[in-house]
Design goal:
This protein is mainly alpha-helical. It contains five helices and no strands.
């Protein structure tokens, strides 16, 4: 959390969101691309990292484009939560017979 606070204070999230907002296409396309990116980060790293570090980036991208923030906010949270099922430790072991 401390790293996230320092990154926010330094403007890292705003800068990343600004760069991502320049992706071509509609707002729906931007949301789709960013949610796929969130799913990949969640699957490779973990749920906490995706939520703490990518949610602000998605919100800054939406703000920069002048889009409604709610789909980006809820999409980021739900996608990270769903994609966390791809993590190795998220599945319960099969019962032995």
């Amino acid at each position: 959390m401390l790293v996230g606070a320092v990154a926010a204070e330094d403007g890292l999230f705003a800068a990343a969101g600004g760069r991502l907002a320049r992706l071509p296409g509609s707002g729906g396309r931007l949301l789709t691309i960013l949610l796929l990116f969130e799913a990949c980060v969640t699957a490779v790293l973990n749920l906490d990292t995706a939520v703490v570090f990518l949610t602000p980036v998605l919100l800054h991208a939406a703000r920069r484009r002048g889009l409604d923030e709610e789909p980006f906010l809820y999409g980021a949270i739900f996608m990270a939560n769903s994609a966390s099922l791809l993590l190795p430790g998220s599945r319960s072991p099969r019962p032995s017979r």
